[in-house]
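MODEL INPUT / OUTPUT PAIR
PAIR INDEX: 1
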Amino acid sequence: MNKRQSSLETTILIIELLKRIPKSWWITAQQLKQQLAEIGLDRDIHTIQRHMKSLVESSHFPIDMNNRSKPYGYRWSQQAVGFTVNALSIQESLILQMAHKTLKNLLPSSLMDSMSGFFEEANRNISHAQDPAKEIQWLSKVVVAPEAQPLLPPELQPDVFNEVSCALYNNYCLDITYRNAGGEVKEKTVMPLGLAQQGPRLQNKRE
């Protein structure tokens, strides 16, 4: 690999890192590594950590690092506006907000996390638009209404959904522990086949 190509790949890697740094929560180097691998940028953890250290120490990017415990976390400073290559229009921001509301339980947690910067930008664009009234009003004008009597959704633990959705996305098996109808604790290896949302209920198809 020549020096010019190496510099270009490093630049692309840094841009992708900056796009994935959230503002309202901490992200670790391991999480960034996983998100980059999903788009074909497979880098070792030490490379990710080295670039993040350089970005934190740089005066060009207001990025905070939580080094009180390991693994370290990273996020944009509160006064930062984040990073994006192309600014979202007000129409694109409205569509993203609606997509986030509708699809948050139908996409892998890792993909939703990788899009967090865009969702935050969409919310910020509408909130700070010169005349955001129409866009804000539209969010309250539309709703997905069930055909039957609405049911109360069961409590969905984020860690469980994360494991199931990631296994489904990557075609992995899951080792699960569950309690059957008779109250017995069982262990089983299952292969998630799909997610189905019926009203407020989220169901997992498996074999």
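PAIR INDEX: 2
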Amino acid sequence: MEDTRLVIVADAHLGAAPVGDEEAFLRFLDTVPRPGDTLLLVGDIFDYWFSYRRVIPRRNFRVAAALTTLARRLPVAMVGGNHDRWGDTFWDVDAGVRFDPHRLRLPGPGGDALMIHGDGLHEERPGASWMHRATSSPTVIALYRLLPPDLGFWIADKMGHNLGYAETHPEAVQAAADRQRRWATATLERERDLRAVIMGHTHREALLEVAPGRWYLNPGAWLDGWRYATLDASGAALHQFS
């Protein structure tokens, strides 16, 4: 897989973001990942996702369908974020997308890439630690699955998401981004067979060559100007889709 290009997207928050972000994301899926690439989705692509045994969310169905179609042409891998961790077996079994609720380690150009969303490494705001524990708890997931789907989705909508938090609390988000960078750097120094640590969550772009050819990478938020990143044999780069 030395010639594989990784195309990396995080934090689209589709469902809470403006409708135009979904339209742009569909165009992105049609045009940017090409045969030979691997698409990495680094959490919170959906602002809320819960897969019941026989029901998935109707909202943003076109994106789910587009990812399913794309996964027939090239590898697609996804980790869950604190807003879309509850994918259960839908992505792997039905969509053909390699999925893990927390982390994936994937072969890539020049070495493995470790992909995690990044929540749980820090507490940038009150309730963040609680949210991470709740979305990771098998007990909470099992209890939530007992709710009728319409009620479960209604509750999720009422919980809402403050998409403007980063603008009103830049110091807290910067502190979280700094902690992510330190964690990624320490991980790369400890695990020499890793070429890249890839995270999202903070909505802050990061492109740091920790050692020659070894990277910490955060693509930034798709939500903030349709941002994404790439990693190939020549190195890493940040991009803005248009």
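PAIR 2 NOTE: The chain has a mean pLDDT of 90.
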